Task: inverse folding
């Protein structure tokens, strides 16, 4: 695929703040770039939801498309989704992917890994084809994070079947926790429970499309889609039930009627933040760089419907303290967000672009 690469520069002063930043368009024409990770200091490996992957040089702005991908069920919200490097990438070379695999005539969120050899992915391994297959092409979840011990977390949406998020006998509506080789950690919360799948770490999630593990604070954050209103940021606890669809702050799509039994129920976790109206979150990270000191330690989420980057402050106790919205003037559905070692921020849009955000 030919990549049409060009750039623009915008200078923006945030209303009521001292922050000035520059935006450069590094690439366009990339379909829906769903996931991004740096495989070298100046090279981003990105996924395209339609089932392709490529590498963008942020120095030359050139794109090369990779070979060696499996067959991907690219329908609706599904396709080739997230990508993340092994915590020991320099030694083991593993790159982790989530994608939608065809299971009969249905689609299931799947975790896989492969290695990169020049312009080809090799040694592709499906580590877990989740028990989440439905014919609905929605709510795949599918973001990846690693903790300080090397455990891998990844998200699975309810797949359009709400009640499955409360059923521990399937993987829909859950956060899963695995060892890097796909095996189950012995201390997972439901290991040995005959009514639950061993991979489950938490459940009762609707469609978590952002996940980030804060290694310094040892906190696992997720951001997930609510229905009409009620997007949530949750601090994930081992074995926690996050309530969907029994409790929710959102309304039904067909009318102004609350979903479920209300907003609270004993034994079900409360969100740390609720968005009403929904922003439709597409990703999550904590900014760790020094180029934007005023944002260090804050949560960054791409917003798909309200079209901005959402920035939320976190205090030392894990309370969410502030909210800021940037890039609304860009008018783009912002999907993935990442940063490089120097602290530059990169984000992709559903209109096929990758941008870099740097200080002015």
Result:
């Amino acid at each position: 695929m030919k990549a049409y690469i060009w750039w623009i520069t915008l200078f923006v002063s945030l209303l009521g703040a001292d922050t000035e930043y520059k935006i450069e368009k590094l690439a366009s024409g990339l379909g829906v770039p769903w996931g991004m990770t740096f495989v070298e200091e100046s090279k981003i490996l990105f996924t395209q939801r339609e089932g392709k992957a490529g590498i963008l040089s942020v120095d030359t702005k050139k794109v090369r498309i990779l070979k060696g991908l499996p067959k991907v069920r690219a329908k609706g919200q599904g396709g080739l989704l997230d990508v993340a490097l092994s915590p020991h990438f320099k030694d083991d070379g593993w790159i982790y992917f989530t994608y939608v695999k065809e299971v009969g005539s249905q689609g299931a969120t799947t975790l896989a890994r492969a290695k990169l050899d020049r312009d080809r992915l090799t040694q592709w391994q499906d580590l877990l084809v989740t028990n989440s297959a439905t014919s609905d092409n929605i709510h795949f979840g599918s973001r990846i994070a690693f903790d300080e011990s090397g455990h891998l977390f990844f998200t699975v949406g309810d797949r359009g079947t709400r009640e499955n998020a409360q059923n521990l006998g399937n993987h829909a509506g859950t956060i899963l926790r695995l060892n890097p080789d796909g095996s189950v950690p012995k201390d997972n919360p439901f290991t040995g429970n005959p009514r639950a799948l061993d991979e489950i770490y938490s459940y009762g999630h609707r469609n978590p499309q952002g996940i980030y593990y804060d290694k310094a604070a040892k906190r696992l954050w997720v951001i997930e889609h609510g229905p009409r209103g009620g997007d949530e940021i949750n601090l994930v606890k081992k074995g926690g039930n996050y309530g969907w669809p029994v409790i929710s702050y959102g309304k039904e799509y067909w009318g102004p009627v609350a979903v479920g039994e209300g907003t609270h129920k004993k034994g079900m976790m409360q969100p740390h933040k609720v968005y009403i109206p929904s922003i439709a979150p597409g990703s999550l990270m904590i900014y760790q760089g020094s180029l934007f000191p005023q944002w260090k330690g804050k949560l960054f989420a791409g917003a798909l419907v309200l079209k901005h980057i959402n920035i939320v402050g976190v205090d030392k106790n894990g309370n969410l303290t502030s909210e800021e919205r940037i890039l609304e003037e860009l008018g783009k559905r912002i999907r993935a967000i990442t940063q490089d070692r120097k602290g530059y921020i990169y984000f992709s849009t559903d209109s096929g672009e990758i941008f870099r955000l740097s200080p002015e």
Summary: The mean pLDDT is 94. Helices lie at 89-92. The chain has one helix and 25 strands.
